[in-house]
Amino acid sequence: MTASLVRHRPPHPDTETRQSPRARARDWAEIQERMLVPLHEAVLERLDVGPDTRLLGLRCGSGLALLPAAARGAAVTGVDSCPELLALARERLLPADRDGAGARAELCARVPRASDNAPFDLVTLFEPVRRPADDREEPARLLAEALPLAARGAAVVLAGWGPPERCATSSVLAVAAKLADPLRRADGRRPGGRDDLEETARRAGLRPDGSGRVSCPFGYADPDSAVRGLLATGLFDAAARATDARQVDKELAEALHPYIRPDGTVRMPNVFRYLIARLP
């Protein structure tokens, strides 16, 4: 069983309960978020994140990407507009029984307007899997708000899907496109284009300074966990509005069949790409 597989299957909720914001946040934190841990670790290692690092994590979710940075001694600030995810991030990074050990972590619902501390030398936007909740979470908008808080020469890391032929989940995500817009041909392509990271960096006035690819297989304890994890991304919300939640569940479960292994687990190989850019 790979490291990305869920070790303990969460209890199965009914459809109505699973659609609640709290349940979806919990599914994200317990099932889906961990799939990008290899990406987080590769970037932190490459940039030698440590006690001298001040990191601003945009769309930090439930804080899983901030944990290894904090463990390396970095001062971390996480931003996410979802209150349920931010509450889970607080449990992870600022537990009440830590006796002040989380003092170098801060969590916010929006990008701070100003900072009394030293400027950030690392800004991350790791989350290519979650659908933005609204326009305020679009990468360009977030970067425009965050970059004034960064030091000159600061590293800005953007992440996205790798080549579609190396992302098995592309075929599963095509279900969302097909149900949301039946007249559009569902060709299994992943969101975004091959140069979308560079284009986002260019529009933000950033200078590319390296990139990399990381294997991030999506592994689940069983098909039900896979359905719940994928639904927690929000990428199937439009499909559910166009049809209904049960129809989405059914077609998503069918799309997962090729990736079910003999032991009942689900594994989809994927490659994610990251771009390191610098603030002039």
What is this structure's SSE topology?
Blueprint lengths: L14 H4 L2 H12 L4 H10 L7 E5 L7 H6 L3 E5 L3 H11 L11 E4 L11 E6 L13 H8 L3 E12 L7 H12 L15 H8 L3 E9 L2 E3 L2 H9 L5 H6 L2 H12 L9 E3 L2 E8 L2
Parallel strand pairs: 1-2, 1-4, 2-3, 4-5
Antiparallel strand pairs: 5-9, 6-9, 7-8
Helix pairs in contact: 2-9, 7-11, 9-11
**Low-confidence spans: pLDDT under 50, at least 5 residues?**
1-12, 185-190
CA distance, first residue to last residue: 44 Å
Number of helices: 11
> What percentage of residues falls in helices of 4 or more residues?
25-40%
Count structural domains. 1
**Largest β sheet strand count, sense and barrel closure:** 7 strands, mixed
The overall pLDDT, averaged over residues, is 87
Q: Strand order of the main beta sheet, please?
A: 3-2-1-4-5-9-6
- CATH topology, by name, is Rossmann fold
Tell me the number of strands: 9
Q: Sum up the overall morphology in one term.
A: globular
Report the radius of gyration as a whole number of Å: 18 Å
What's the level 1 CATH class?
Answer: Alpha Beta
Topology as a string of helices (H) and strands (E): HHHEHEHEEHEHHEEHHHEE
What is the second-level CATH architecture?
3-Layer(aba) Sandwich
Tell me the β content: 15-25%
What is the fourth-level CATH superfamily?
Vaccinia Virus protein VP39
